[in-house]
Every structure is written in structure tokens, then in C-alpha cells.
Amino acid sequence: MKAENSIVKNFWENNPVGAKFIDAELGSPDFFKTFDMKREAENCEPSSFSNKIHEYDRSEGKMVLDVGCGNGYVLAQYARYGARVFGIDLTEKALQLSQRRFQLSQFKAEFKLTDGKIIPYTDNAFDVICCMGVLHHIANPRPMINEINRVLKSNGQAIFMVYNRASFRNHITFRIRKYIGPKIYRGKDMQQIRNMNDGPDCPLAMVYGKREIERLLKDGFQNLSFLINKLPYEELFIHPTLGYYMARLLPTPSESFFARKWGWNLYVKGNKK
Fold first, then answer.
1. Hey, is 87 helix, strand or coil?
2. Of 261, 72, 80, 69, which is closest to residue 171 (Cα–Cα)?
3. What are the residue ranges of helices labelled H in 106-199?
4. Beta-carbon contacts of residue 229 (< 8 Å; ≥ 6 apart)
5. Which of 5, 34, 51, 57 has the fewest beta carbons closer than 10 A?
6. If the chain, 273 residues long, is cut into consecutive pieces of 10 residues, what is the mean pLDDT of each piece?
7. From the centroid of its chain, how far is CA 145?
8. Does the reported pTM lie above 0.85?
């Protein structure tokens, strides 16, 4: 188990979220500007959709914890609306980037290093806890879920994002990669190809269906609701040029029927029992 944790930590230390897509010095103002622009693009997670998930504009005065805070993007949105924000992450690099983002924006936050199996805060400390894109990288997410439940206030809100088992990417895109994609995917099984979604050396990237998430969360959370998003037209139509022209004719990707039905990101919201 320690060896497994070390592999995961080393990967994310060397591959900070989003860094492979950005041609700018890590931690520079241009890095954060480019990261935010790419994340908020219509074929990813536009700011209006992100606000729908997190309700940033209703978070003033709330205590908010981000489990797996990455480079601090989500926490910065909460801070902008007056929330008191805290972030934890597995890697030193993530905490350095988050601290740098907050330094540049002149927001205040507290960041701590932990793998999430123990969250270094007291019981019932937070009004909101988000955990975006983290659970699917953990072989056994149960300890982290239990800790999130412990430090969340009674009836507090938890927000998760995991990769969607029922997505176009899982059922179509990855199979295309396996059989006719670049050579790097040849000879790989489907789980190996899923792992490679976050980089060729990513040790694990699981997919979840709604029922699987319900089973994971049912003991500690109630009032679960689901949203699905992220299916660029370039991916849906399996060709960048065709996708580009179809995007001019169809609703924005984040509002399309296809993304809401077969998108890659599965968002789950619930309240602590």
C-alpha cells in the first residue's frame, strides 16, 4: 500500500493538474491565466456551469474545504465570493501552486499536505467540502469519504466529481484509441487506456456509474443529485474539423444534450446525514 501511494504521489508531483497543456512557466501569472481560460472554455467547464455546481455566489462567510485542491482554481472562486477557504492535497507541488495563485490574487487561504485518509481538522468544521477529480484516482476511496463526512457539518454540502462510466469517452473514444489510435495505446487493455487519460504514466483512473457512487455515499450522505458534462464536439464527431463546424450549428458543448447524457465528468452533490 505504501508503494502504491508513493507511485501516485510521485506522478502528481511531476505532473501537476493541467500543466502538460500549458506552454507557460509553472506558477507564473500566464500559467494561471491560461489554465483558467482552458478550464472555463465551453467544451470543458465554463464558469456559469461551475457556479451551478458549487454555488460560489451563495458561499459568503461559509467554511469551505477542497480535498485535492490542485492549483487552487476552485478555492479561488469561493474566496472571490467571500468564503473562508481551506485546501488539502497529496503533493507539495499542488500546495505551492495553490499558495502562489492566492498570493497573486491576494486572497487568503490555509493549505495542508495530506493524502486525505486523515483530514487534519476537527469534526463538523465545514459548511461545504468539494472533492473534484480525486476519488477516481484512488483504489479505495472509502477512508477519504469517511473523513470528508466527519469534518463536514450536519446537513453540510459535499460536492464530488468522478469520471463517468456511461460516458462517450469510456465506451467509444477509448475503444477507438485502442484499435486505431496512436501507437502508444496499442496493446493496452481498457483500464490502462483509462489511466492514460491523465498522462501516459498515470497509475490509476477509475470510472463510476451513478449506482456505484450512491453505494459509496449512502451511509453518510443524503439528497444526492447528479449532473453530467464535458463532451467536446471534436470528440463526439471523432474529427477536429467536423467538430469545429458542428459547434457552429449546435448548442454550446456544455449545454448540449450529448454532454448532459454522455459527458466524461459526473458531478454528485449531497448533504451529510
1. strand
2. 261
3. 142-151, 168, 174-180, 190-195
4. 45, 49, 254, 259, 260, 263, 265, 267
5. 57
6. 73 92 94 96 91 97 98 98 98 98 97 96 98 96 97 97 98 93 91 95 96 96 97 88 81 90 98 97
7. 15
8. yes
